[in-house]
Amino acid sequence: MSRFPDNFLWGGATSAAQIEGGRCSDGKGLCHLDYVYYRGPKIPCNFMLKRDYERAKAEEATLNFPNRRGIDFYHHYKEDIALLAEMGFKVFRMSISWTRLFPTGLEETPDPKGVEFYHNVFRELHKYGIEPLVTMIHYELPIVFVEKYDGWASPEVIPHCVRYLKFLIDEYKDEVTYWLTFNEINMVTAVPWLGGGILLDRYDDFEIPKGFRPFGVLPEDMAKRWDNASHQALHHQFIASAMVVKYAHETAPQCKMGNMFNLHHLYPETPSPEDAYRAHEESEYNMFFCDVMAKGYYPKWMLSYYRKHHIDIQWYEGYEEILKEGTIDFISLSYYLSSVVTADPARQERIGNFMRMLHNPYIETSDFGWQVDPTALRISLNDLRDRFNLPIFIAENGLGAFESLGEDKTVHDDYRIAYLRRHIEALADAIEDGVDVFGYTMWGCIDLVSCSLVSMSKRYGFVYVDADDEGNGTYNRYKKDSFTWYKKVIATNGEDLD
Q: Residues with catalytic annotation?
């Protein structure tokens, strides 16, 4: 008897910004991720300052913008979906590009060619019996909201976004059952540009020091700007999400609405009470994002946190009722790694309010510095069960690696198989613990443009795409060893992991 439910949804995950390509095809507009340019191997790109954006605009004709190419899913979607079907996918997590439907984000009506493209994708998925799981906003914000406003820190974005989200429900409710409103909504507090289209230094009275990098202890004035802008943006995203969840419940009750957050399990560095409390505090912070979306209110401790840290939120009118009426139906999460926390601020690196990372000597580390810890996934799933008592979907989990196509036209990625095997085993253990997990989508099931490095070098997929960081290559698709392995995993409902 399988440890997984008979109707368990096995599949893979992608995002429109990282796979679609087709920049400006059939009227598509540009989003803020289209201005993130490649800066070299292992150089994070998605933290953008005013000088970076100004360079992107000034040198648009010569800089390398990989998100504008993706893997050309726009023209390869039938071929790609056929590969997913060959693996036996039950579900495919994808996102819809706001600017393919509403090129500037300000239009009252959508572009019909963009609307039809997604109908075609859904028809192709259903032809093979694959359920689409759709992320409404996967880090994409029309560029006008960066230039005209202040990204998601501005409440002016909300009505335009809600119009777009309501359109998605109205147009595709008969083709899509499972929806996620925002991808990794907590990442706006970690990387304000990526999650919210916010340029922290866009104002003349705020200057980023030379040599700044978004890690370590932040200068006081920058930390204050970061905290206020990112949490204001988060509040606006909570509001937009709750509004569309309520709308879907009223107009399309067959649709199931979920959140999506980055789960980051934290251990105290030592058994000292100070380290233990610090780990508890950080864990509570990570869960806060689900608290608001699943319970419908800000927890009291978070309001206290705002007062303590002088974070001044401009509350959206009627926000308490809006959040209460727009609670989600299931929890969705990404999980990649765990971290170690210390109470000593001088030794603790940070990215905004997120990801305190110290080395854990008890677990291995990937080529990209991420510590591989499937046990933490099991622990966290049990915590989520006890805290929310809602169904759970694992929307992202995977291993990025440098890979090249061999002479035999494949990639022998035993390391990826080993990583996924251990996490699927941990997932099975959590289900036996009584956690209601109903689906798993491995991240980047087809090689795509990585989010952090904005490159093709960091590969996740079961399928290799012949394209390099400069956009050179045939863009042909080739099956890796993990393709056959995952096909067997799905066929046996998670029982055969050898």
A: 184, 396
